[in-house]
Design a protein that fits this description.
Layout (H helix, E strand, L loop, with lengths): L3 H8 L2 E3 L2 E3 L2 E3 L2 H7 L4 E8 L5 H13 L6 H9 L1 H14 L9 E8 L8 E9 L5 E6 L4 H20 L13 H11 L49 H23 L1
Antiparallel strand pairs: 1-2, 3-4, 4-5, 6-7
Helix pairs in contact: 3-4
Length: 261
């Protein structure tokens, strides 16, 4: 049993100044320690398989941002879904949330951290270039058996918590078969926010930079990028990169102060 309205109210994207936000579930520190699990989070997203008023409205907004006239077909999609459009306007004004498009379903997405793997590399292509003649990035990324095992373990824990908690009264969780989950994870490729390609290491044999982000063998050069992380916990790494930038700036100031003395 599922309450579509309550699902939309609880999990729908909230309009906030400057953008939208949605609800995420994260593994607690105790759960990660007890079950030996990496960082992971879950969020609910709606799925859509056909053109509808939502798609038309999205493209109209994109046209407005690009200062272009919206297409007649997109306006037609909105008019054809007038009942949904009216609800969407009401939800935007009073619920401060995005109302799901008609005929959409809800999916629980799980994002996990991969294990550090030296086989995963990003290099420059020797044969392909961009319009400016610069080599394109060549991504050689793999999903390990341990990644699969960990993903299934977190999914099982999620299903147990979902059925026991109050949220189970709002929405039933229909778990995919293990084979379907494994296929989906492998097809995904694991290449969102890749890291570890210029990782931190004590020596040039272990990594590209040291603990102060100084490039081994190149005096005076530091590297600031998420690629120095051994791996990334799934969600956007921008905040961690900002924190690292602040720390690196402090270290540069300290180094300059020592030189002056």
């Amino acid at each position: 049993m599922s309450d579509r309205r309550e699902i939309s109210r609880l999990f729908g994207f909230r309009f906030v100044p400057g953008g939208m936000r949605n609800l995420r579930f994260e593994l607690s520190a105790k759960t990660r320690f007890d079950k030996v699990l990496p960082g992971a989070f879950l969020h609910v997203a709606f799925s859509r398989e056909e053109e509808n008023g939502f798609e038309g409205l999205r493209r109209v907004f994109q046209s407005a941002q690009s200062r272009k006239m919206p297409s007649i077909s997109d306006i037609g999609l909105i008019l054809a879904d007038t009942p949904w459009f009216a609800r969407a306007v009401w939800w935007r004004a009073f619920e401060k949330r995005l109302y799901p498009p008609p005929g959409s379903g809800f999916e629980l997405h799980l994002v996990t951290e991969q294990e550090p793997n030296v086989r995963n590399t990003i290099s420059l292509s020797e044969t392909q270039c961009d319009p400016f003649g610069l080599p394109l990035a060549r991504i050689d990324w793999h999903i390990s058996d341990l990644d699969i095992k960990t993903f299934l373990k977190i999914a099982e824990h999620t299903a147990e918590c979902w059925s026991r908690g109050r949220i189970g009264h709002i929405a039933d969780l229909n778990v995919r078969s293990e084979d379907a989950v494994v296929d989906a994870v492998r097809d995904g490729g694991g290449i969102f926010h890749p890291a570890g390609t210029t990782r931190i290491g004590d020596t040039a044999k272990d990594g590209v930079v040291d603990s102060q982000l100084r490039v081994h063998g190149v005096p005076g050069l530091r590297a600031l990028a998420t690629s120095v992380f051994p791996s990334i916990g799934g969600s956007s790494p921008s905040l961690a990169l900002t924190q690292m930038a602040v720390r690196m700036a402090d270290e540069i100031v300290q180094d300059c102060s020592r030189v002056r003395k």
